[in-house]
Write a structure and sequence with these properties.
Length: about 325
């Protein structure tokens, strides 16, 4: 009897351990199709494109050969236009993200104080996000057009001065015009994220600060901003990635011109790959840009994790 009971108990233990092992493997099995799809859709093309960046592949040639890191050396040490477009992209991204953040934070603070109609306000605020970037590019290209643009016609109606400003041609007006278009399209995203953060903040610290006689600026600086940091880093990381690969609006409005005055990194990649047929060189440039974007994103997400830990400890 005792032996039979022990045998049944060992069988039950083995069944339980087998069940636990199968339960542990289940999430991996469920994730396997997604991993295989990502490997096929993302991994294989990236490996192949990296291989092409190590060759002299061109769309105008039927053959190519391995040349190692020559494309990267050419870009980094012998192509001033690459550094000009790269620096312009960083400036564009820095200005746009920070202006969007300041505008978004101010609008989010005002919207969070609205008692009625918040849903309607959020819907109106999201309208710019509903437009495709190509449509936004056409919209602002018409808005800033020197002859028939809305802005020049409005200035003429107000001042009576017939002089037409070439917004998309003159330096630095072309760059500023692109910046305005991106800010118009991206600020609503900042507003939605930051307003969600503001509405989720606990009321107790603010009530305690009110009892202590803290001013509105002190509460904003010492309470609102520190507690909002996870939302701020999230919004800025996502918008930075969007702006780092800005192409549609720039290509439609200026095409990177005139004379490369508004050339950003991805319009330059497009011109190299499909305009000058230097596909391998353009691919190498893409990998340099992706590497810098990865480092920047890692920095933002590291700060995001730190801010979450700080919030949890407080």
């Amino acid at each position: 009897m005792a032996t039979s009971a022990m045998t049944q108990k060992s069988v039950a233990v083995r069944k339980r351990s087998s069940f636990d092992a199968a339960e542990r493997r289940l999430p991996l099995l469920l994730l396997l199709p997604s991993v295989l799809i990502m490997l096929f859709v993302i991994g294989i093309p990236m490996v192949y494109s990296f291989y092409l960046s190590l060759t002299n592949f061109s769309l105008s040639s039927t053959t190519h050969k391995m040349i190692g890191l020559q494309n990267y050396v050419q870009l980094i040490f012998h192509d001033p236009l690459f550094w000009a477009s790269f620096g312009r992209t960083l400036l564009f991204m820095t200005l746009a993200v920070n202006i969007e953040f300041l505008l978004g934070l101010g609008i989010a603070q005002l919207m969070a104080k609205v008692i009625r109609g918040q849903g309607a306000l959020r819907t109106l605020m999201m309208i710019p996000m509903m437009f495709a970037p190509i449509l936004v590019g056409f919209q602002f290209k018409w808005f800033f057009n020197a002859q028939i643009g809305l802005l020049n016609n409005a200035l003429y109606s107000i001042t009576g001065n017939i002089h037409m400003i070439a917004w998309l041609v003159d330096r630095p007006l072309g760059f500023i015009s692109l910046l305005i278009a991106e800010i118009w399209m991206g600020t609503p995203f900042m507003v939605i994220i930051l307003e969600a953060g503001i509405l989720s903040l606990p009321l107790e610290p603010f009530e305690a600060a009110e009892v202590d006689g803290a001013s509105g600026w002190a509460k904003f600086r010492l309470l609102t901003i520190p507690m909002l940091m996870p939302f701020i880093y999230t919004a800025m990381a996502i918008r930075s990635l969007d702006l780092a690969r800005a192409y549609d609006v720039v290509q439609i409005m200026t095409g990177g011109g005139p004379a490369s005055r508004t050339e950003l990194i991805w319009t330059y990649v497009n011109r190299l790959a499909f305009g000058q047929h230097e596909f391998a060189l353009a691919t190498a440039m893409s990998y340099i840009t992706v590497l810098v974007s990865f480092i920047f994103t890692w920095y933002l997400f590291r700060n995001l994790i730190k801010s979450r830990w700080a919030g949890g400890k407080d």
